[in-house]
Design a protein that fits this description.
Order of helices and strands: EEHEEE
Largest sheet: 3 strands, antiparallel
Strand content: 35-45%
Helix content: under 10%
Number of domains: 1
Shape: globular
Radius of gyration: 14 Å
């Protein structure tokens, strides 16, 4: 509930995603494409005031893909909250 993800593809920023249960139905259906050979930026924002913790944390973002060899990609972000 404290970690949010956006994708930046070709200069366009996606909606802000959170845990699946907190996303609207429209947001759950959001899709985009990254052209072959192109790249995108994944922007992860941690908002500690929503769930205060201190010390080391690890948060994940999972993306569905159309790659039959990798139907899901999981990115893990580690940080220390002071």
């Amino acid at each position: 509930m404290c970690t949010f993800v956006e994708l930046v593809i070709d200069g366009e920023t996606s909606p802000e995603f959170n845990m699946v249960m907190h996303n609207s139905n429209a947001l759950r259906k959001w899709k985009s494409a990254i052209a072959s050979g192109a790249s995108a930026t994944v922007r992860v924002t941690y908002k500690p005031y929503l769930m205060p913790v201190q010390g080391p944390i690890e948060r994940s973002a999972i993306f569905a893909t159309n790659d039959t060899n990798n139907p899901e990609v999981q990115l893990v972000v580690s940080a220390t909250v002071k």
